[in-house]
C-alpha cells in the first residue's frame, strides 16, 4: 500500500511540475489549446498572472516531493496529507471558478492519493478492525 501511495504522490508532484512549467513558460504558446474557451488575446495580457499561479504549483510539487524524502513515516504522511489537501482545495476552487475539468484533473487524484496515504499508515490489526 505504501508503494502505491508514494507512486501516486510522485505522480501528482510530476503533474504539478508540468502545470508550473505550462503556466510559467508556455502560457501564451500552449494556453489557447488547453483553454479553448478563453479568447487567444487574453493570454499575452495574463502572462504575469499565469506565471504567479505556476510558482504556486511549483510549491505544491516541492511539498509533495519533500514528503517523499522524509524518513519518519508519520511526518512523511502528515506532510503528504497537507500538500495533497492543498492540491484538492485548489482543484475544487479551480473547478468552480475556471472549468470543472480542473477539479477532475487535480482534486480527484489528490483525494485518491490521500486514501492510499492514509491506508499505508495503518497496521494490519487496524485494517481488520476498520
Summarize the entry for a quick read.
The protein has helices at 2-25, 27-34, 42-45, 47-69, 73-97, 100-120, 124-129. With 130 residues, it is mostly helical. The chain has one domain (2-125).
Key attributes of the depicted protein:
130 residues; mainly alpha
Question: What do these coordinates show?
Answer:
- By secondary structure, this protein is mainly alpha-helical.
- The chain has one domain.
- Helices cover 85% and strands 0% of the residues.
- The protein contains seven helices and no strands.
- Mean pLDDT is 92; it is low at 123-130.
Terminal CA distance: 16 Å
**Radius of gyration, taken over Cα atoms and rounded to an integer in Å:** 17 Å
- Shape descriptor reads elongated
Helix content range of the residues, please? over 70%
Task: Give the count of helical stretches.
Answer: 7
The main sheet comes to:
none
- Overall SS class: mainly alpha
Low-confidence stretches: 123-130
Beta-sheet strand percentage?
under 5%
Structure summary, number of beta strands:
0
Order of helical and strand elements = HHHHHHH
Amino acid at each position: 500500500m505504501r508503494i502505491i501511495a508514494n507512486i501516486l504522490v510522485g505522480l501528482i508532484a510530476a503533474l504539478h511540475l508540468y502545470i508550473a512549467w505550462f503556466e510559467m513558460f508556455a502560457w501564451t504558446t500552449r494556453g489557447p489549446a488547453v483553454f479553448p474557451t478563453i479568447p487567444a488575446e487574453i493570454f499575452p495580457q495574463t502572462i504575469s498572472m499565469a506565471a504567479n499561479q505556476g510558482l504556486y504549483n511549483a510549491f505544491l510539487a516541492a511539498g509533495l516531493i519533500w514528503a517523499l524524502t522524509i524518513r519518519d513515516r508519520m511526518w512523511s504522511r502528515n506532510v503528504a496529507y497537507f500538500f495533497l489537501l492543498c492540491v484538492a482545495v485548489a482543484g475544487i476552487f479551480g473547478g468552480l471558478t475556471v472549468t470543472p475539468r480542473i477539479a477532475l484533473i487535480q482534486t480527484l487524484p489528490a483525494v485518491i492519493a490521500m486514501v492510499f496515504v492514509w491506508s499505508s499508515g495503518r497496521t494490519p490489526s487496524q485494517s481488520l478492525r476498520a
